[in-house]
Structures are given as structure tokens and as C-alpha cells.
Amino acid sequence: MLRTRRTVSSSLQRDAKRLGALALALGASGSRVEDIYWENQLADQIRKLLRQQQDEALEHALDELAQSDTNAYEVLIELIETHSESGTVTGPDGQPWDALLIVAPLAAWTRYSIFSGPLTAPAHARLQQALHTDILAPDARLALLPALFSMDQMPRSFSETWRWMQNLAQQAVQGSEVHLQDYLLSEQVETAPMLADTRYLVGVVAAPAGAPLFHWQEDGGRPEASRGNSLEQWIAHTHEAFSELLPGCAFECILPDAYYVSNREADKTIRPLTLQAALSWLQESMDMPAETLRAVIAGCGESRIEEYRIGLTAKQSNDVIYGCMWPLFGPEVAIQAIDDGAETVAQISELLRRSGVREIRRIPGLLTPEHCEDCGAPYFPNPQGELVHPEMPEEVPSAPALFH
Fold first, then answer.
1. Where do the structural domains in the chain lie, given as residue ranges?
2. Distance from C-alpha of 13 to C-alpha of 58, rounded to nearest angstrom
3. What does the H/E/C string look like for 260-317?
4. Distances from the Cα of 36 to the Cα of 22, 33, 42, 99, angstroms
């Protein structure tokens, strides 16, 4: 997704310019041999900046490429993510080990609260064993943080992600105890109550360099070790543990995998659940069945559509009472420019219709994504095509957060 521009120092600009030049060179490469050369150059530069916590240089390079060369942007973001979520560490035997930061996501929805926080020792042990049994290769080692995290409690920068990976990797290969307090962010943000939200187990899996990390890598990808089979076993073996952690919640397990790809998969999974949970809550708490509502869909972004915002109003009113976000990821952003968002809007509209909403309006063009300066909540479109702050009737009890 595109990032907003920022001002950086001259030294950071030099680092960013170097990154941009290397990404452009890699994007223009005509052979795998040349690819490897440029990838190694980029890897050295990226790892240096991650160690120095120079996220601004990384972000500035991405900002510039997002505006000038989307192919080079995709090349660079993929490599930054790769080197912040994975690496090589030295084991106690002095040999190299491959390490990968992983998450096991859940998409949960409820009228009540969705738990996040420390796990009990028995729950931690059960989930750790399930990962070894269902997901990880036999020789892989695991360091699993003893907590269920919300997105607000996860690393907020590439360098913070890299730090988690490096520290957990050492604990995985050495078999040392993982202490949760070492991974709490310096400024803990209270997780806002949501009708639907994601939760994550976070850990690092490590294996001797070149050895499989996951079950599905074994024996040349045999069918019984497929990702689908691994997910089925994971769901079966963790349902009871997650049900105890998330009382009063329905939830969907997502395949544990590499940090960034699993985060994106969780975000995609939660999109329709957020909208469905909102419509259900409005009917139950405000006596507003879906057929009495109007949905207004608007594409938002700085220079192209990066997300859709869905405002919900009563049919006879222009006042937005609730709103939902529909973020876009990776290739989805480029597709909007090709078909003017027709496919995505059709997907959202079909979901709304299946949920009972009959009046659906799309606002043409691109709206600048706006947020409330006081509370930080995003604004949502009304039927006039304006982004406004959702306002619920005062008599509504225990109103959840107005966005995901």
C-alpha cells in the first residue's frame, strides 16, 4: 500500500536514494544471475538499516518508488519484509540456522470483548505442541511468545519486527525460555473494542540452514503434507484451546505462516466478517434490520484507491451511524486502476445484498482518507459523497469502535 510522504535528513535521503537505485536495477534485470547480484546488494543495505533502526530511510525509499515506479516498489517492499521477518543465526553448535518470524492468526467476531493478553502456562504449552504437531517440520525449533496479541500490540516498524525475529531466533535455537516482558512495546495501546478483529500467536521457527521449516516442505511436497491438511489438523487440535481463550466469540483459524503474508491473509479474512458483524449488531442493538439501511461505498487514497470505506445510514437519512473499512493489499491496489474498482465494489455489494442491504450507492472518483483529529477514527462516506464522522444515537448501549 502507498505511504504518506515525510521529511528526512540528508544522510537518510542518501540511504533511501541508494535503496531506490538498487531496486530499480533489480527490477530491470534480465537474468536470474543478475537478480542475485542486485538482491545481495540490497540485502546488505537493508540489513544495515534494520540494525541501525533507520526505518525512515526504508520508508522514504518506498515513498519515492510508490510515486515513480510501482514495479521497483514491489521489489523493494518484498525484500524489506523478507529481511525483517527472516534471517540466519548461529546455533549452539556453531552452525548456521534459518529463522523465520511466524504468526498464527485468528479472525474473531462477537457482541462482547475479544481477549488479548498473556496465556496461561497450560494454554501456551498446548498451542506450542499443536504447532509442532501440525505445522512445523520435525527438526524445527520454536520460540513462541506466551500471549495472544492484537494488531495494536504487534511491531509497528520494520526494525521492530527485525528485533523480535532476531531475539526469538536466538531463543529458539538455544532452547531458552521466552519472557513476554521483553517483547512488550514501549507505549502499550489499549485495544479498542471491536465487533470483529484479529488476534495472533507470534513466534520464530528455526531449522538448520537449508532444512525444512514446515510440514508441507517435506518429501517434495507430498499431498498428505499440504498446507490444506496442515490447516485442518491445526483447527482440530486448537479449537478447544482457542474457545477457552475467546469465550462468547466465533472465530476462524488462519494457517500459521510467515509474518507478513499471514498478517495480510488475516486482514483479508476479517474484511467481510467486520461488515457482517456490524450489520448484525445494528439489527440487534438498534433494531435496524439490514433492509432498513443504506450502504455508501467510496474508494479512498492519496493518488489511487488504497481502501474502500463503507458508510451505513438509515434509508431516509443522510447521517452515517456506522462505518467499516475494506483495505486493499498488494496486487489488489493495482487492479483498481485497471477496472476502476468494479470487481472489488461488486464483491462488497454482493456481500451487502446477501446480508439483506438493498440500497447500495457508490461514490465515484477518489476521496482523500480523512480521520477525526480528536479521536483518530476514520470518516466514512454519506450519500452526498462527503466523508463524515459516524454518529450513533446516544441511547445505544456499549457502542463498539466505529472501524476495524
1. 10-84, 91-267, 288-388
2. 10
3. HHHHHHHHHHHHHHHHHHHHHHHHHHHCCCHHHEEEEEEEECCCCCCEEEEEEEECCC
4. 12, 5, 10, 20
Average pLDDT over residues 4-25: 82
Q: Which uninterrupted H or E stretch holds 198?
A: strand 196-208
More confident of the two residues 219 and 118 = 118
- Report the DSSP beta bridge partners of residue 312: 295, 322
Q: Encode pLDDT of 206-215 as tens digits.
A: 999 999 999 9
* Residue in this structure with the C-alpha cell 479512498, named with its chain if needed: 300
8 A C-beta contact, residue 287 and residue 280: no
Angle between helices 70-85 and 10-28 (to 10 degrees): 110
Residue 219 exposed, middle or buried by CB count within 10 Å (0-12, 13-18, 19+): exposed
- Can you read off the three cell numbers belonging to residue 153? 500490540
- pLDDT at residue 393 above 80? no
